[in-house]
Fold this protein.
Amino acid sequence: MEKLSSAGIAWRAAQDIADGAYVNLGIGFPEMVAQFQPPGRHVTYHSENGILGMGPAPEEGAEDWDVINAGKKAVTLNPGASIFHHADSFAMVRGGHIDLAVLGAYEVAENGDLANWRIGNKGTPAVGGAMDMVTGARRVAVVTEHVTKTGAPKLVERCANPLTGVGCVARVYTSLAVVDVVDGRFVLREKLPSVTFEAIQAVTGAQLHQAGPVGALVVPEGL
Amino acid sequence: MEKLSSAGIAWRAAQDIADGAYVNLGIGFPEMVAQFQPPGRHVTYHSENGILGMGPAPEEGAEDWDVINAGKKAVTLNPGASIFHHADSFAMVRGGHIDLAVLGAYEVAENGDLANWRIGNKGTPAVGGAMDMVTGARRVAVVTEHVTKTGAPKLVERCANPLTGVGCVARVYTSLAVVDVVDGRFVLREKLPSVTFEAIQAVTGAQLHQAGPVGALVVPEGL
Amino acid sequence: MDKSVASLEAVVADIADGAVVMIAGFGGSGIPVELIHALVARYRATGHPGGLTVVNNNAGTGSVGIAAMLDAGMVAKVICSFPRSSQPQAFQRRYEAGEVELELVPQGTLAERIRAGGAGIPAFYTATGVGTELAEGKPLEEFEGRMYLRERWLKADVALVKGELGDAHGNLTYRLAARNFAPIMAMAAGCTIAQVSRLVKPGEIAPEQVVTPGIFVARLVEVPEPAQEEVLVRAGEAF
Amino acid sequence: MDKSVASLEAVVADIADGAVVMIAGFGGSGIPVELIHALVARYRATGHPGGLTVVNNNAGTGSVGIAAMLDAGMVAKVICSFPRSSQPQAFQRRYEAGEVELELVPQGTLAERIRAGGAGIPAFYTATGVGTELAEGKPLEEFEGRMYLRERWLKADVALVKGELGDAHGNLTYRLAARNFAPIMAMAAGCTIAQVSRLVKPGEIAPEQVVTPGIFVARLVEVPEPAQEEVLVRAGEAF
C-alpha cells in the first residue's frame, strides 16, 4: 500500500496553517512542518523555553546554544522575535494565545483523546510540555504514521496508553489520510487516491465516517 | 499634652528601617518616612505601580509623569532602579519580598487588626493596594496621630471601621508612643518623656501593657 | 504580517456595545489618551459603543481619558481598585446617580486576576482581603496554616494600551513606569489595541527587550508625541 | 548595599543538607555550571550539602552540571518535567536503583507552580493534566463549563541562576533564551544566588531592561566567560 513519507505528512499539515498564525511544533517529527510553510504566509513559531519568532536551524558551526528550541536543537531568531521567561511562555499556551499546536502521537482516539507521552508504565516517565500544549492551544493537530511499526492502528476507539489530554485533537494528518475528530467520531476528509476507503478502514482501529466528499491527499512529487 | 509632629513620628519610624531593607510607604503621611532615612543605610523603596529604587521628588518643573509613585506624585529613579509590570509588582508584595510596609491608620486594634481604607460605609469606597500590602509585607508598621482630630482613640480593642487586614500590624508609631502588638495585646515600648503612662492610657482605647523597660521617645529638635 | 492600522478612527471602529474594555495606565501614566478619545468621539458621533465595562486601576480624573468616557455616558460599570483621584467628579457624579456600577478590587488582586485571565488560570488563592468585607462570598481555604480566599480570573473583550515602540508584529516596549498594567492587560483581552509613539521595523526592538510579545497584540496605530493625561489634567483640558 | 561575593566557594558555602534547590536552565542554556560545580566540589570535600531536592526542567545530561550532582550522590529527589536527555545516564542510574525520587510535573505547570511560589499564590487551577494519570489526587473543579485541577505553589530554599549582567543590588539580565526559568526561580527561593558574566555598577543596567529586580537576589558572583553546558556535554567533558 502506498503511503506518504514523513515529509509528505508534514507538507500536508503545513498547508492548513493560516497566514498570521502562532504555532507550536512538538519535538521531533512535528518540527518538520516548518520546512513546508507555504510561501507568502507569515507564521510565528513559539518555543516553550521562551521564544516567539523562531527561525530555521543555523549552519553547522554557527550554533548559539542560548538560542535553542524545546527539543534543545539550535535555532535562529527571525526579525521581530521576542524572548520571555518560562511562566510567560506557558501563559501564552495555557491562556489560549497559540493558534495551533502540532504534535506526534502514539494513539489518537475517536473521542479526541491523545496518548503521546508514555507507552504503558515502563521506563522513566517524561512529559515535558505536551499536556499544557494540548489543553492550551486553540487547535491541536497530530502528524503521525497511520499505523505503528508493527502495523497496529494508531487511530483507535480508546487509547490504551496513558493520556496526554482528553478530547483535545481536532485533526490527524497520517501517512494515508486526513482525519478530523467530530462529535466523538473520526471523519475522513482526505485520502491517498491510490488507497481505497476500505483499505484505510482496515488499518484504523475505530470506525471511519464520511461527511461530504473525501478529498484527494496529494503532495508534491519528490516528498 | 506635648506630642510629636508628623515629621517627628516619621523620623522615629525611619530609625527602625534596617540597612538593605526593601520598603513600601503608603500614600500620604507615610511617604514622609523616606525623608528621615538614617545616613549610611541603603534602603530600596518600592512603588506599587512598578518601581523599585524610587528616589525623592524631582525639582518643580523637572517632573516626568511616567515616573510617579503610588500616590501619583512625581518621583525619581535611583541608580540600580528597576521597572516592572503591575502583576510582578504585587508578586513582590504578596510573595513576601517586601521587608516592611508603613501605612497610616484610622484604627489599630490590640489584636493587630488594621482599619485604614474606609470610614463606615459612606462615600465612594477606594481600597488601592492596602489590603495586598498588609497581608504580603513581612512586617507592617503604622504611623499615626495617637488620637483622631476629635480626640477619639485610634488604638482600640476592636476596629469599628471596615478592616484592611486581620492581625497584621506589628508596631505603631504615634504622636505619643511606640506600641507593639504582641499576642493580642498592646505593649508600650517607648513614650514621650514628658507624658505619663496614665496620660497615654487615658487616650488609648485598649489596655496598654508593659514588658520590660519603656524607652524614651525622643526625636531631634526642630522636627 | 502587518498589524499596523493607519488611523485612530479605524483602530477602534469595531469595539462593540457592552464590551469589557481594559484600559492600561496608572494615574495619568500609560493612559492611552488618543485611543480613548477616538472611542469617545465615535460614541458622540454614533451612539456606540455604549454600556461598556471599563477596567483600570482608577476611575478617571478631570475631563479627559476615562473621565471623558464617563462624562459621555458610555460606561455602565467600572472595575478598579481606587475610584478616587485629585479630580474625581466624572465618576463621582455617575456613581452617586446610580448610573455606573462599581466593582472594587484590591489593587494586587486586580493585577493578578488580569494576569490569570491572560495565563489561562480560572481561579487562584490569595491572602489579600481575608477577614474584610471584600471577602464576602469568596470561598476560603487554609493552606499551610494560613487562610486564603479564592479569586477568579478577569478577561476582557478589548484592551487599550500605550506603548513607546511597536513593530508590525505587535511587539511593544513601554516608557518607564508607564508600563504598569499594559503587559498583563494585553494578555487578558481578546483584542488588544496599542497606540505607540513610534512604529519601527520588526527586528529594531532587540528580542530581549520586547516587553509585550506581538502574540498579545491584535493591532496598533502610531501616535507620535502622545498626550500625557496628567499633563492634560493639570492644564485643565477637557475632551 | 553590595550583594556581590568574591568567590564561588563562598557564595555556595551555606547551602544546607536537605535543601530544596531550584536550578535555572533549560537543556544546557542558562545552566549555572560554575555554581553547580562549586556545590559539587564542596560536597566531595565535606559531604555537604547532601540529600538535596533539585528543581529543573530536566534531570541532567552527560557528566557535568546536574548530572555531576547526581553522580556525586548529593541528590535525593528531582522535580522536573522531562528527565530524559541525549545522555541521561546519571539520572537513569540513580532512578533505577531507587536512590533518587522523581516528581514529574507538566512543564507549564512546573513553571506556574514556581511563579506562584514567588508570587504568594498557594494554589491555582489549570486544565493541564485533567483526565490523565498526573491528575491523581488533585482536587477538580469546574469553571465556566470546563474542568480544571488544582496545583500547589512550589518554593525553594535556594535558587541558582546564571545571569549575563548583574549589579551590586542584584539586578540581573540574561543572555537570549538562557532566561528561561531564572526569573521565576529567583522569585520563588528564600535565597537566590546568581553567577553573572559581568558585574556592573548600579545604574549601568537601564531600569526598563532589568529582567530580575535585585529584590529577588540575595548574592551574586562574577564568572567571566562561563561554560555553556551544551558545549561541555558535546565535548564529552566530565566534572
User: Anything to note?
Assistant: The longest strand of chain B covers residues 76-83. The two ends of chain B are 17 Å apart (CA to CA). Residues 65 and 72 of chain B are 8 Å apart (CA to CA).
